[in-house]
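User: If you would, consider this record:
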Amino acid sequence: MKKGLVMEGGAMRGMFTCGVIDVLMENGIDFDSAVGVSAGATFGLNIKSKQIGRGLRYNKIYCNDKRYASIQSLIKTGDIYNVPFCYGTLPYELDKWDINTFYSNPMDFYCVATDIKTGQAVYHKCNNYDTTPAGEDIKWIRASASMPIVSRPVQIDDGLYLDGGMSDSIPLKFMEGQGCDKILVIETQPASYVKKPQKYMGLIKLKLRKYPKMIATMAGRHDMYNDQKAYVKSKEEAGDIFVIRPDAPLNIGATEKNPDELQRVYDEGRRIAIERLDDLKKYLA
């Protein structure tokens, strides 16, 4: 039996995912394949490197550090999350990503990015054994979490990429395509959530005017997302997948500066994961 894990993004709603995956690791629940989108990739990679608590820890420590996420960084570099710090100094020096464990773990780990030339999702398998911030896998993970408007597109080879959530927010169908028999989906919005049309299409059209297909993807993102939520719900009701999601909106800022708020959302992920743990074990058995 092959088990898969799907992790939705959502900026600092990803603290919910951190809480869930920490409970999974504490209880020895493993997966053969995992896919993360945006924050689901940047925080979710800790399940492959088996680093319980890391996602919460470094976010609480550095959330008020201007080197991490700030308007100053956006103005100076074009990235609200400062690239050299977030994808270099932090994971390779300050709170080290356990690269050896990540790459020795047999779990397949994918991240989703959006090709801004085509507007289509691209699924990258992280298996290049990168040991420096210049590595290919860390670039793909960064691309997956590079939010339009407040991030520069990430160049990888001849391509340009942005946030995977624009083209495939909840990649359940991708994971089904990996031949998984049992799949856990971690969502960061409640079951009743309905996404509304993008409010900033004027600014998006201005910033991405050279990439009409990306503009079209973002204009239709709410429809894609709502269709995916409905698909997840239908598969859940049929008993084909297992879903862990918040009971209510998490109401946390995309660049949350309050460590207590980060802890609150993380604790909510832990609470629901623990509450549903026995049912999840039965499903995966």
User: Anything to note?
Assistant: Residues 59 and 141 are 17 Å apart (CA to CA).
